[in-house]
């Protein structure tokens, strides 16, 4: 029974270690100079809840996270700053 438990434990740790390594093909200078921002990734829409009801007292204390009632709004990213250079980028105001 002890051998079975020990074997299962060792196999579990080996499987988690091997699964955790995602970029096994990169070694040496390629891994050192790897640029994450150049890798093509799928964009995922991000939503947030608007018009949340603020709770006070015991209701706020006992509220479970992730159960917000409200309207879901898509968050839009502003890419205008990336095209601006110099003082225009420094003084860019995203709310305008």
Mind explaining what this structure looks like?
- The longest helix has 19 residues, at 2-20.
- The mean pLDDT is 76.
- The protein is flat, with a radius of gyration of 24 Å.
- It contains 5 helices and 2 strands, in the order H-H-E-H-E-H-H.
- It has helices at residues 2-20, 29-32, 58-61, 80-83, 87-90, and strands at residues 46-50, 71-75.
- With 96 residues, it is of the alpha+beta class.
- It has a two-stranded antiparallel ribbon.
Task: Give short descriptive properties of this protein.
96 residues; alpha+beta; two-stranded antiparallel ribbon; 5 helices; flat
**Overall mean confidence score, pLDDT:** 76
Beta-strand residue percentage: 5-15%
Main sheet properties: 2 strands, antiparallel
Strand order of the largest sheet: 1-2
- Which regions are unreliable across 5 or more consecutive residues at pLDDT < 50? none
Q: Report Rg.
A: 24 Å
Q: Indicate the overall shape.
A: flat
The helix content, as a percent range, equals 25-40%
The first-to-last residue Cα distance is 69 Å
Order of helices and strands: HHEHEHH
Number of helices: 5
Briefly note the structural class of the backbone: alpha+beta
Number of strands: 2
């Amino acid at each position: 029974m002890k051998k079975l438990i020990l074997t299962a434990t060792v196999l579990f740790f080996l499987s988690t270690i091997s699964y955790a390594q995602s970029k096994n093909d990169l070694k040496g200078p390629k891994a050192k100079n790897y640029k994450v921002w150049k890798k093509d990734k799928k964009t995922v829409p991000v939503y947030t809840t608007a018009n949340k009801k603020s709770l006070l007292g015991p209701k706020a204390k006992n509220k479970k996270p992730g159960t917000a009632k409200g309207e879901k709004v898509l968050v839009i990213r502003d890419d205008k700053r990336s095209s601006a250079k110099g003082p225009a980028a420094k003084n860019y105001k995203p709310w305008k």
